[in-house]
Design a protein that fits this description.
The structure holds 2 protein chains of 2 kinds. Chain A is mainly alpha-helical. Chain A has one domain. Chain A is built from 11 helices and 2 strands. Chain A has a two-stranded antiparallel sheet. In chain A, strand 1 and strand 2 form a beta hairpin. The longest helix of chain A is centred in the first third of the chain and has 31 residues. The model of chain A has no long low-confidence stretch (mean pLDDT 86). By secondary structure, chain B is α/β, with parallel strands linked by helices. In chain B, the strands form 5 sheets. A 7-stranded mixed sheet of chain B has the order 6-5-7-8-9-13-14, with helices on both faces. In chain B, helix 3 packs across helix 4 and helix 6 packs parallel to helix 8. Chain B is globular, with a radius of gyration of 22 Å. Chain B starts with a helix and ends in a 12-residue tail after the last helix. The N terminus of chain B is likely disordered. The chains are: A mainly alpha, B alpha/beta. At the A-B interface, helix 1 and helix 10 of A face helix 2, strand 6, helix 9 and helix 10 of B.
Chain lengths: 306, 438
């Protein structure tokens, strides 16, 4: 039972990390109807920018000031990225169909990955923002050896929860949030009622950049900032399918489900199937959800007149 | 304006070529490298070491006996399909075609093992590739110089035995083989299984899906089963992630033993303090500088043609790239003694590799004393040596913590023979009689 709980907790906390990346996808899809293939590249670029800034600043100023300065610089970099994407990629493609915009984001992914490596190099960069990495063992009196909980994973869950609350409030309770949702429904209609499309797209890509920065700091604290971070985005795809492309709570719940499900699959089914199954298990889960509920567990059911 | 644009375009194209100018009288060496993608942190120092040595030979010695070395890099991204594309693109370059190829990936090696003989180009797989390819009677064109995965696996188990009180004490012990789920990670399994059967320890293979970012499930299982040792067969991001997860479950890092592709600076540095104590076997050499590095500084770095960062020169993977290039160059030198001082074909270079011999004096002359031991390649033995040592990461550098360990040939040789014969039978390759080799 102790081991079962350990796998459960590990899976749930790991799932929060997936949810964090999936959030970036959901935000952009919700506000612009684009499945942003470049989200993984943005996580990588944000991490590189932040780590490089920390390396430069921490040698000249106290840790807290270096951290704040680096956060500002990395945020500025992501704002600049958002502006460039809006100005040079999205603006010329207003009113194009979703597939065209999706293909454009694939191009953006290659550009962002390449430019980030060109500017910051390919070396692995460490990130240390003071998040604890110690392990805690709880319920030691009930279970032999206790139940392992990683402090870093726990902090990640707290950060993700705060981010979700902030984003939900922003989308539900602000004029800009409502404008974002209007743009998602129909670009042209939103424009016709005076919503500045270019500004909205800049805002949403900036927010996605911010989420990418948070995800990069958390993942970078675990494994360092390196190209492999772009693969984290692949983990977010089944999360999106399970949770629904338009739901922020869906991304969170699906992240937890996928994280938990793949850990259970690897631990309990893996040995009899040769192991290494958690990668495809997430996609099998997503496929199953597509069959029974194509819009995802929390997605909006789309009914179109034909 | 249009002319200016065309001139600019032509200039950009000219400067985008990675290699130095190639002349008709040059010996061409293709370089399959990966400077981008998830494995770039490992691929870059290797490629830099390789290129720096070729530059050194050209600038210090004027080439090999006056024959300049021309080379061109091709980016594989560590992907098999792109590696094969690079091979096809580069195999015919230079006046005599490619001298040899270093696929620098087990997957690419597997893909080229049948192509290279047809094109009469040798493959040098320095510490990787098919383990049975050391049998030169079947694998005429493959040269896994100085070590195969089977050699590494055998040495790791021998080292573990030395830590628990001898091979007899292995009985009843539990060892987990944590590996990247790829041809690279699966390659040592036959030897580990044979050793487990011979010495009575339990072996639990645990695959990790590439690139290895997610290992929590595996480490929770390790925490539950409490193995005595974990053999780490990872690459790139999988290795520091393993350190982090091991630390999270309080598994002692000094009971994780990696292979030589999981034993370089990029494998441990990102893990910070959590990597301290981790051990890995060595492909003979480790980190550190010798006379050859001083020459690289003098003739290559000072001239401004090196792409290496100052701290990178002398690191494990830089040294491996440098040694890889050096062995190739020495093979060309050996072949020149037989075929003449001119650009050689791949077939002639193959003879040079098969007759490559580095003794103490030659090793000293090359400025690599202490990095490798004397060895000799032959028709029957394309590996040349089955020696290794163990190093340990102290948080800043690798420290050698064992004496030289000779792989157990009584176990490996029959396995190599059987696997090579099976390959030969499957592919209808008649075994070459090595007594007739010239």
């Amino acid at each position: 039972m102790g081991f079962f709980l350990e796998v459960l907790i590990g899976g749930l906390l790991g799932g929060v990390l997936y949810a964090l990346v999936a959030l970036g996808f959901v935000l952009i899809f919700k506000a612009s109807g684009i499945l942003n293939f470049a989200q993984g590249a943005m996580v990588f670029a944000a991490g590189l920018g932040f780590a490089a800034a920390m390396e430069k600043t921490s040698a000249h100023m106290p840790f807290a000031l270096a951290l704040a300065t680096s956060l500002l610089l990395a945020t500025g970099m992501m704002l600049l990225t958002a502006w460039a994407i809006e100005r040079f990629v999205l603006r010329p493609l207003v009113n194009q169909n979703g597939l065209t915009l999706f293909m454009a984001t694939i191009g953006v992914a290659f550009m962002v990955e390449g430019l980030a490596q060109q500017i910051f190099g390919n070396n692995i960069r460490r990130i240390d923002v003071g998040l604890p990495k110690t392990s805690m063992f709880i319920l030691e009196s009930q279970f032999d050896g206790g139940i392992l909980v990683n402090a870093l994973d726990l902090w990640t869950a707290v950060i993700a929860a705060l981010l979700v609350v902030a984003l939900s409030l922003f989308f539900q309770n602000t004029r800009t949030g409502r404008a974002l949702r209007a743009v998602a429904d129909d670009h042209t209609a939103a424009q016709s009622v005076g919503i500045p499309l270019n500004w909205i797209w800049f805002i949403v890509w900036s927010i996605a950049g911010g989420v990418a920065l948070v995800a990069a700091i958390v993942w970078g604290s675990k494994i360092g900032v390196q190209f492999a971070l772009t693969f984290v985005a692949l983990k977010a795809l089944p999360v999106l399918i399970v949770g629904g492309l338009t739901s922020i709570p869906g991304a969170i719940v699906a992240g937890l489900l996928v994280g938990m499900g793949e850990k259970f699959a690897e631990v309990y089914l893996g040995p009899s199937l040769g192991g290494g199954i958690e990668q495809w298990f997430a996609y099998v889960l997503a496929l199953f959800v597509l069959l029974v509920r194509p819009q995802g567990l929390f997605g909006e059911r789309i009914i179109e007149r034909i | 304006m249009k002319k200016l644009y065309l001139v600019g375009l032509a200039a950009a194209l000219a400067f985008s070529v990675d290699s130095p100018a190639r002349a008709d009288g040059d010996q061409f060496i293709p370089i399959l490298s990966y400077r981008t993608g998830p494995y770039a942190p490992n691929g870059i120092p290797y490629a830099n070491g390789f290129v720096d040595y070729l530059e050194l030979v050209n600038r210090r010695d004027g080439g090999v006996n006056g024959i300049k070395l021309a080379f061109e890099e091709c980016e594989t991204g560590y992907a098999t399909d792109r590696g094969v594309e690079c091979y096809e693109r580069l195999k015919g370059k230079g006046p005599t075609g490619a001298s040899f190829f270093n696929p620098l990936s087990t997957g690419i090696t597997f893909a080229l093992t049948e192509k290279a003989p047809a094109d009469k180009i040798p493959l040098i797989t320095f510490g990787y590739g098919r383990s049975e390819s050391r049998d030169g009677s079947v694998f005429r064109w493959s040269f896994p110089l100085l070590g195969t995965y089977w050699t590494a696996a055998d040495v790791i188990v021998q080292y573990i035995a030395s830590q628990v009180g001898g091979v007899e004490a292995l009985r009843g012990k539990k060892i987990v083989h944590l590996y990247l789920d790829s041809p690279y990670g699966k390659e040592p399994l036959p030897v580990l299984e044979a050793k487990a059967a011979k010495y009575g320890f339990s072996l639990t293979p645990m695959p990790v899906t590439a690139p290895g970012l997610e290992q929590k499930s595996q480490w929770l299982q390790i925490r539950q089963s409490k193995p005595d040792f974990v053999i780490l067969w990872g690459y790139g991001v999988m290795d520091p992630t393993a350190m982090q997860e091991a630390a999270a479950v309080n598994f002692p890092r000094d009971r994780i033993i990696g292979n030589w592709w999981a034993g370089a600076e990029p494998d441990v540095a990102p893990a910070g303090e959590q990597g301290i104590g981790y051990k890995a076997v060595m492909l003979q050499h480790g980190a550190g500088r010798g006379k050859v590095h001083a020459d690289v500084e003098k003739y290559v770095v000072t001239a401004g043609v090196s792409r290496s960062k100052p701290e990178e020169i002398g690191q494990v993977l830089y040294n491996r790239g440098l040694l890889n290039a050096m062995l190739g160059v020495e093979a060309i030198r050996t072949a020149q003694a037989k075929f003449g001082k001119r650009p050689l074909t791949g077939e002639e270079v193959r003879w040079g590799i098969e007759n490559l011999k580095l003794d103490e004096s030659r090793i000293a002359a090359l400025g690599i004393e202490g990095m490798i031991r004397p060895f000799q390649i032959s028709c029957a033995d394309h590996q040349g040596a089955g020696l290794s040592r163990v190093q340990q990461w102290d948080g800043k550098t690798w420290k050698v913590v064992s004496d030289w360990i000779q792989a157990d040939e009584s176990l490996l040789a029959p396995m190599v023979k059987a696997a090579a014969q099976k390959y030969g039978a499957d592919k209808s390759i008649p075994a070459f009689d090595c007594t007739k080799a010239q």
